[in-house]
Design goal:
The protein contains seven helices and seven strands; from the N terminus they run βαααβαβαββββαα. It is α/β, with parallel strands linked by helices and 165 residues long. The protein has a seven-stranded mixed sheet with strand order 4-3-2-1-5-6-7, with no helix packed on it.
Length: 165
């Protein structure tokens, strides 16, 4: 699975309140949550996101509460993947559940805001097309790629049940 998009760069310790403020947790609609994604730390974020774009961040991305709203908001904003130095464990799990791909890489310091990058989820190859550089990280396992293609864990389970009927 290949993902290609423009980079939106963030630093360390981006928490779930930064991703989606608590005042919006009355909704579970991905588009509504996405329309407020990152607004407390980057007010114009959603105005600059194009479908398929990619968040690149530092350490401990998604720390804070266990709310699934955070990865839902990211996906709802049009972001197709997140690359960070490290992720909070609960964000990691919630991202899998909703089908938001993520990769850990120390190369994030070399990637700049606005760069066009291409991710091969299977191989873990990240190509920075703006800088003509390539980085290698651990690939996204085939099973998790299937979850992403199906739109998350629940859709994956439903599709599997339909095949077994």
């Amino acid at each position: 699975m290949i993902i290609k998009g423009k980079v939106h760069k963030f630093g360390d310790d981006i928490n779930t309140d930064d991703i989606i403020a608590a005042k919006y947790l009355v909704s579970t609609d991905p588009k509504e949550l996405g329309s407020h994604c990152m607004e407390s730390i980057a007010p114009n974020f959603v105005k600059t996101v194009g479908a398929g774009d990619i968040i690149v961040a530092g350490n401990n991305f998604g720390c804070g509460s266990s709310r699934e709203h955070a990865p839902v908001a990211i996906k709802g904003s049009g972001i197709s993947a997140v690359i960070a130095k490290s992720f909070a464990a609960i964000f990691f799990r919630n991202a899998i559940n909703i089908g938001l791909p993520f990769l850990e890489s120390d190369a994030v310091d070399k990637i700049k805001e606005g760069d066009l990058i291409e991710i091969d989820l299977g191989s873990g190859i990240i190509k920075n097309l703006a800088q003509n550089t390539t980085y290698k990280t651990q690939g996204f396992p085939e099973f998790l790629q299937e979850l992403v293609e199906k739109g998350g864990l629940m859709n994956y389970i439903k599709a599997k049940e339909r095949r077994n009927v």
